[in-house]
Amino acid sequence: MTTQELNRDIKRLFNKYKTNSGGQATNEYFDWLEKEIKPELKRLYNADNTFNSLTADNIKRLIRLNLSLRVIPFHQFGLFITL
Q: What pLDDT band is residue 60 in, cutting at 50, 70 and 90?
């Protein structure tokens, strides 16, 4: 996965979550979160856990998604970041 593809996919995931999260809290919504959003967030996070190829905006998007969904434990998120 190239840098551009990773940044593009993070932006798409964030926009997809943001546009669909305003709905009703139904079983369909929670199934959608479990089957589509959370696995994709894990995949994108593990694609580059050092955050070398991410833009600042996409790092913020990942943090925001993880704060909302709690996919990656807080004590492990960004552990291998290189400054």
A: very high
